[in-house]
Specification:
Keywords: Membrane, Transmembrane, Transmembrane helix
Shape: elongated
Number of helices: 9
Largest sheet: none
Oligomer: single chain
Radius of gyration: 21 Å
Protein name: Urease accessory protein UreH-like transmembrane domain-containing protein
Amino acid sequence: MNELILLSLTAASLGFIHTALGPDHYLPFIVLSKARNWSVPKTMWITFISGVGHVGGSVVIGLVGIALGISLNKLTFVEEFRGDIVALLLIAFGLGYSIYGFYKFLKNGGHHHLPNFLIPKNLREIKHQVSHGLEEKVDETKLTPWVLFIIFVFGPCEVLIPMLFIPAVQSSSTGIASVALFFGITTIATMMFIVYLGHLGSSFLKFKSKEKYMHLIAGLVILIAGLGMHFFGW
């Protein structure tokens, strides 16, 4: 029983460290919640679902690997490959969202500050019809949360599978379940806590005059997170 408690606490600790040291676990939610004007409940729900997908993907791979007798080295390689895939997905999403943010910037009046040759022809004729005193409408787009969810399903939990192998060697189904549960709860709770703090902190900052930049900023932050994950192993 003492071994099980120690294993569970270790799994929980690794879940916290794994999440807190990975900016890709929370930065996309923070910047998108601000750019798309998500409420706190919506932000927390999207973070929670994405966290479940993130942990669940690695748990399923680990359990299938254990059941089929696949070696730890091969499963570790699979997780590393998934890490490369999710980094590329984040880069692609960040790049695409940056382009969208730049378009929104131009459409919302930013084109007045750019040289004429940088402005698409159709936007040259668009007048700035949105008053600076109006709040951006609440985002009703369903696509962005799903994109985040899919990316996080691909996202690996590199430290989880080696932890699952420890009780698996001892044929302890209770140990396997305990490791998965404690690691999962801690990971998701840490994601939600940091995202909540980031969302709360951003609400105190004065973004009123910079609202037209927010989508572009969100895209660039996600792009940087993806590049950091790909090149520096964040």
